[in-house]
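Appendix B. Raw example, untouched.
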Amino acid sequence: MRESSEHTEIMVIGAGIVGLACAWHLQRQGFEVTLVDPEPPGAAASSGNAGLLANFAIEPLAQPAIWRQAPGLVLSPHSPFHLRWRHLPGLAPWLWRFMQRANRRSAAQATQILSELLTPSVNDWLTIFDDLEDNGTLLQQRGSLCFYLSAKGWRKAQAELSERERFGVNQQRLDAKALAELEPALEGLARGGILFPDACHVSDPLTLAQRLAERLQSRGVHLVRAKALGLASHGGRIDIDTDRGPWQAEKVVIAAGTWSRPLALACGDRIPLISERGYHLEFPTARGLVSRPCSPGEYAFYLTPMQGRLRIAGTVELGHNDDPINSRRLDYIRRHAESLFGPLGEPSHTWLGLRPSLPDSLPVIGPATALPGVSYAFGHGHLGLTLAATTGRLLAASIKGEAPAWLAACGAGRFR
């Protein structure tokens, strides 16, 4: 242990895609930035997502319809949702908050804020990709497709489509013939679908994180392999205790994903953050199956073409961070995908990751309520990759006192 503290102007805790984007914006604003993470950049949840920039996903998960859907979601063996029942006592407070939000008023408020966040999300990412000098290999601008296998699913999609239309989301209804023309693998499978032409996908999320980290380092951002253990205010600065020794910073940004909760608690904020356990399988022999992210709406996963393989990612499992991988979740993904497209070959990679999720489907972006100098950027749920660039821009604006008024809805104080 060092006797004296290392010093930085701004420390960003967390080198996932959100932390990296925050560091990018802060460095562009002229701040000296240090990134701290025990793992390499993008190694956790940022590496295994579906790769989709889902700028259309303005509906929060807590909707009034969840009250009638909940029994089927929880009890059906064919559900895309799974609850590890032995952890129910610990999850119950979060689930109660979630169900309290499942009303028209709360859902409408969350939709409005998600629209504010998502509308600029692709353009914010384009700014970063321009800086990375991407030649079109990482960012794929081909849109995204959601298709529906049953008449019931297609009818339900119409109501969601109408709600997105109210917020100006660019989307196109497609009949079965148009779907097959766009993606031949879908011929004969679906009743209809919705194309989101402005959506994009990243052909390798881990490579994106690595390239962004390299660009930051080339501009003087320090990357430190250490785990932040706690924070405290001291003399107008922030003391950060890490497993590699003490640090001191003028300001701190907590962007540690699912590991942000104890750090926020040390700052005086009790944030109801849990981990949604998400899974993926990758199939190299099926890499040409689809040309853009495609989701069967009834099954709640995405098939995304990646560099040299097809990634199928999705489902939700609530449990404990340390639980082992649930092979039944992987079986769910493979079984349903192969029921649609036939044998996909042997998977080259299986993955479990932890999505940091809050009951109102909104992230926490902005200052801590009780520890001056500390800001938050976490809790993005399924939208971490999509909202990373926008979060970084808004976080930097917040630190400079220039955040838009509506961002207060994403503040930590909403949980008091």
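End of appendix B.
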